[in-house]
Amino acid sequence: MPVLVMKFGGTSVATVDRIHRAAKRIGVEVAKGYDVIVIVSAMSGETNKLVGFVNDTSPLYDAREYDAVVSSGENVTAGLMALTLQEMDVPARSWQGWQVPVKTTSAHSNARIEDIPTDNIMAKFGEGMRVAVVAGFQGVSPEGRITTLGRGGSDTTAVAFAAAFGAERCDIYTDVDGVYTTDPRITSKARKLDKIAFEEMLELASLGAKVLQTRSVELAMRYKVRLRVLSSFEEQSDDAGTLVCDEEEIMESNVVAGVAYSRDEAKMTLISVADRPGIAAAIFMPLSEAGVNVDMIVQNISEEGRTDMTFSCPVDQVKRAEKAMNAAKESGSINFHDLVADEGVAKVSVVGIGMRSHTGVAAKMFQVLSNEGVNIKVITTSEIKISVLIDRKYMELAVQALHDAFELEKA
Ligand code: ADP
Ligand code: ASP
Ligand code: MG
């Protein structure tokens, strides 16, 4: 029988009642003749609560134990979903990551899926089970310890299962009815897209649109998974939601497809480092080893052999970054006059494959921000995106102004 993957995010399984509604939706697909693999997140708020417990217990925690704790939310919803389906006479069984097993790297708290053997679940489908409910977000390392896939990781679990089982489609049920031109919580003018190209979705996700985890889009693109985002709160037709697909499948699109933002960024500047070969490596190697996710990097003009180096990273990694830089200074591998952290910045980006063939998008973006009196602190570009770092207090204003200026409410 054809296999379908259906993923339900936190708000879609937030209560026993919601789980029941999701189960009814699953029952519809089972009745159509699909064997269904259901991926569930933890109930909404649950993972945040667990992360809070870990931080309160041990601020510089052992990531293996972090994973042991934060993976547990999904175990609850997987069992409850299987029970709910059984109550509806749908043969269902739950699976934790290690039982499948979802084999991952040992990069705890941010592991990558390496392999998903299909034999255990296929054997059960062969025996008449119709739904395998799998706890999202978790796997098992080569050492046999529980791992997690990074926040939002259940999306990646879902796409990886769709690829492994050759599923007809991977449906991501969430609390919005598709992918919008920007987060609909920021502007009511945001417009739902019927289709979006993998590459645009990849950029939007990696630039902060948390509707899909970046890695899930990467996997879908690589393994040609038909990926759809739709609402678990409304009745859905077969072509509802947003299809993430190859750009060839999209007839007409705007130059700018969407605006993304990332609220909790920090800008760090090392004042007066020696401008010599190897300085960037000497700064960014220890940051990488400390697990700091450096994003934008700017090296300023050098004067008398000294320069300033600026980089951005998530604001909750500032302490880690400071520790790594001070340790590098003490060891003598780098020398700097001061380390200044600006913890009040956000990143706003415009994304669109149309930028490959259209000029002037950057100039227009800067003009719009200037008209609003928003100062740009750092700029980065790639072929299909432009990102700026600005004061966090202007973030919403900037997103709205850019959405208006690029007329994204219009198809
Ligand atoms: P889930 O719990 O189902 O995984 P998430 O909260 O992770 O859901 O992702 C859905 C949220 O993503 C939406 O509620 C919305 O606020 C946010 N979002 C950000 N950017 C976009 C966008 N471009 N289109 C749709 N939703 C977006
Ligand atoms: N529960 C996990 C998180 O909140 C994974 C997910 O929901 O996708 O990050
Ligand atoms: Mg999510």
Summarize the structure.
With 411 residues, this protein is an alpha/beta fold. It contains twelve helices and 18 strands.
List keywords for this structure.
eight-stranded mixed sheet, six-stranded antiparallel sheet, 2 domains, alpha/beta, binds adenosine-5'-diphosphate, binds aspartic acid, 12 helices, binds magnesium ion, Carbamate kinase
**What pattern of helices and strands is seen along the backbone?**
EHEHHHEEEHEEEHEEHHEEEHEEHEHEEH
The percent range for strand residues is 25-35%
How big is the Rg? 23 Å
Bound molecules: adenosine-5'-diphosphate, aspartic acid, magnesium ion
Mean of the pLDDT scores? 96
Number of helices: 12
The beta-strand count equals: 18
Find the structural class using helix and strand composition: alpha/beta
Distance between the termini: 38 Å
Number of domains: 2
CATH architecture name of the largest domain: 3-Layer(aba) Sandwich
Describe the structure in your own words:
With about 400 residues, the chain is of the alpha/beta class. It has 2 domains: about 5-175, Acetylglutamate kinase-like (Carbamate kinase), CATH 3.40.1160.10; about 260-405, VC0802-like, CATH 3.30.2130.10. The protein has 12 helices and 18 strands. It has helices at about 15-30, 45-55, 65-70, 70-85, 120-125, 155-165, 200-205, 215-225, 280-290, 320-330, 360-370, 395-405; strands spanning about 5-10, 35-40, 90-95, 105, 115, 130-135, 140, 145-150, 170-175, 195, 225-230, 240-245, 260-275, 295-300, 305-315, 340-350, 380, 385-390. The strands form 4 sheets. An 8-stranded mixed β-sheet has the order 3-6-2-1-9-11-12-10, sandwiched between helices. It has a 6-stranded antiparallel β-sheet with strand order 14-15-13-16-18-17. A hairpin with a 5-residue loop joins strand 7 (about 140) and strand 8 (about 145-150). Helix 2 (about 45-55) runs antiparallel to helix 3. The longest helix has 16 residues, at about 15-30. The radius of gyration is 23 Å and the shape is globular. Magnesium ion (MG) binds near residues 9, 152, 155 and 210. Aspartic acid binds near residues 10, 73, 137, 154 and 155.
